[in-house]
Write a structure and sequence with these properties.
434 Repressor (Amino-terminal Domain); mainly alpha
């Protein structure tokens, strides 16, 4: 699983860690709640500018998102760690 395929789940976990509803993030970013839902389920990709606004609305930055994608603890929430890559000897 690539980091980008984990992006929707990471976005959802970050939002939930702040106790916000999709509608609240939508209002803060000027988007529809359905659009936020689509980003969090992977139905549509989140544009870079919208990603910045999404993270800003949560009080997170790109480094926090990177930590969430890598499975590191962010703001007191535990995100699943990616499976270890197989090393070839």
């Amino acid at each position: 699983m690539t980091m980008m395929s984990r992006l929707p789940e990471a976005l959802k976990r970050l939002r939930k860690s702040r106790g916000l509803k999709q509608s609240e993030v939508a209002a803060a970013t000027g988007r529809e709640a359905q659009t936020v839902s689509n980003w969090e389920t992977g139905r549509t990709d989140i544009p870079a500018q919208a990603l910045g606004a999404y993270l800003d609305s949560l009080g997170y930055g790109l480094l926090d998102l990177d930590d969430a994608l890598q499975g590191l603890e962010v703001a007191g929430i535990e995100t699943p760690r990616p499976p270890p890559s197989e090393s070839r000897a």
